Hints:
With 795 residues, the chain is of the alpha/beta class. The chain has 6 domains: 9-169, Rossmann fold; 187-339, Rossmann fold, CATH 3.40.50.300; 345-407; 426-539; 565-668, Serine Threonine Protein Phosphatase 5, Tetratricopeptide repeat (Alpha Horseshoe); 694-795, Tetratricopeptide repeat domain (Serine Threonine Protein Phosphatase 5, Tetratricopeptide repeat). The chain contains 36 helices and 16 strands. Strand 15 and strand 16 form a beta hairpin. Helix 28 runs antiparallel to helix 29 (628-646).
Amino acid sequence: MPGGNESGADARRRVFVSHTAELRQFPRDGSYVAAVERAVSACGHVIVDMADFPAAGLPPADLCAQRVRSCDVYVGVLGTRYGSPARDRADVSYTELEFEVATEAGLDRIVFTLDTEAEAIGIPPSGLIDLQFGARQEAFRRRVRESGLVTASFSNPDMLGRLVERSLRELPGPRRAAGAGAGAPPVRLAPRPAFLTGRESLLAEMDSRLAGAAGRSGPRLIALCGLGGAGKTSVALEYAHRHLAEGGVCWQFAAEDPALLADGFALLATQLGAPKSTDAWDAVTWVHGVLARSADAWLLVFDNAISRASVEAFIPPAGPGRVLVTTQYQHWPPGQALDVPVLDIEVATDFLSTRTGDPDRAAARELAAEVGGLPLALEQAAAYMQATGTSLTRYLPLFRDRQAEMLARGDAAGHPLDVPATLGLALSRLAETAPVATALMRLLAFLAPEPVPLQLLLAIGQGADPVGRVLADEIGPLRGDPVAVGDAVAALRRYSLVTPAGDGLVLVHRLVAVTTRAQLRAENAAQWQQAVAALVEAAVPPDSSAPSAWPTFAALLPHARAVLALTSSGMCRFAQYLGDSGSSRAARDLSRLITAALVADDGYGPEHPDTLSTRRNLAYWTGMAGDAASARDQLAALLLIRERIQGREHPDTLATRGNLARWTGEAGDAASARDQLAALLPVRERILGREHPDTLITRHNLARWTGEAGDAASARDEFAALLPIAERVQGADHPNTLLTRPELAQRTGQAGDEAGARDEFAALLPIAERVQGRDHPNTLAIRANLAHWAQAAAD
């Protein structure tokens, strides 16, 4: 057991830590009070303070005196702030009251004072100046110094921590204050976490679940589950330190190995008075017996358990206790597992800003997002920046360019392993026990940090083998077999490497992906990237206009952006999907990127057919995004190239002519659009036929711009003639048919039949809602027109 000049339960003391307020707030990267608490814990003693006094039922001054008298040692840490006067003792502050009570009770007293003359004490001038009670605090400090109790002055937290620990270890044998019980149960805990943020709700949930444990016939158990580096041990230690003053055994076991766990029980058995000859494994039974008979509540922490089965035999079956297990293993009985998530981005941003002292919150937020809020990564990054004097603005591009290297730098307080080592250990264990799950992990590592639709990616019937011969054996067992996929996901969850994100969806933390990729040789990583891209490409639906395919497009889109080349056919279909589903600006922006990539690619170039098709799409979605004039100009330039390369009557040239006419009209010249389409229609009828879909589109557009040019009756008649042909050729629910019906209704109203227009829009609305959805732009336009013509018809 750590700490003290004596061994056994009697070496443990209750230490009251008294301090002035500014010493808990500063420095930002680890306060003076936190340094004292770590020193007390390192000596194996119990920390008592007044942090929770507002929640207690006694008057504050009485509670303060009671707390101090229950202790063995008073540690005073005095700065320059006097603090608030005690509510029911207005003549003294709480700090001064605590000192007086400790003196009256005869406690061992150790006092340290802040050296305000030293440089770089980490407290701003505003934190040192006490305008209201500064004179009273200086008088108190002088009185304490004159008493001869001041052990030393301090100027930084590390120095203070060393002074406190040395002074505590030099104290003579323990003696109890009047009224306190003799001796204390053994304690073995790592120091209290120096930097813990964003966990109050989690600690409150632990309190709620473990409340009343002493009144039960058996202990209550919480398994803190989560990804390596999520801070499970820190949360468990914070809970344990907060409850140390409640008495009873408080012991932390290293639980990753059964032999180490048995040794931990043997040491605890010795502390509890077991015979020296007790076998390590017999010690487990001996400790269980002592804890079952204990009158005091006890707390055991099983840290880093591999699984439930690995610690089950060690968990006491009876007694008034609480058991905390930290583990990556997720499969626990209902009510026992408690997830320790990564930090919310705003909480992580606050941590980085406070920990580094860097005011650039925008950079802090970006870095918090880059590391996915993983506490270990945040602490490593902050420690590296502090050690090297690197600002957040300079660290961020370094991290983005060299993630794997930067994740291995920076010492995280209280954590022996860095991020790659922590996550790599789980990945190594996975490779030993579940090679198929390892293959799935590698597949996931190359996708985006968004929910992954496994069944879409691993479906069979995708044509030629998309993964290639090299990786077919590794991925093959997963394809088309939902049971094998489920088993692999379950294996990944045993190490908290994935998180369920919905039916058939899993989510991988971005740093797990980084670590997984870093473990692969460059050649192997390239093969995996190609295989994953092929799986995504094969899963992209062929028809972007079908609403039934839109959920598939939406699920695959972030992963397509992560792995597909902009020049792939799949990315072109995604651009079309964005536009077809109502996101014209997103379709325009993606089409612009695809066009630039095709122009720059030596395999395509500016006049390749695929490049020309993408330019046509870019012009279309530019117009749909609201810039008709730019769309018209892009198409005019494209038409010249089409005519030169493909000829005046090539289908692609004719399609470009049709689009140019349309956007000429949209840009404000309806008569010119009508005339262009009137010239185009007989050419399309001659080359393609009267009922070809492209011919029908030309007829539709001619009718529209006839109406826009002022002849609503002729437009109505042309749409009325076109509609039955479109329904017969393309189907009543085809997107183009659904564009013809509202045009017919609109021209009917413009030709003077307002009631007829109203009735046609009313009949069309439920069809549009069923086929395209209630929020699709076309559906919303139909609703608006229905309202307009209902009003026009005096309805």
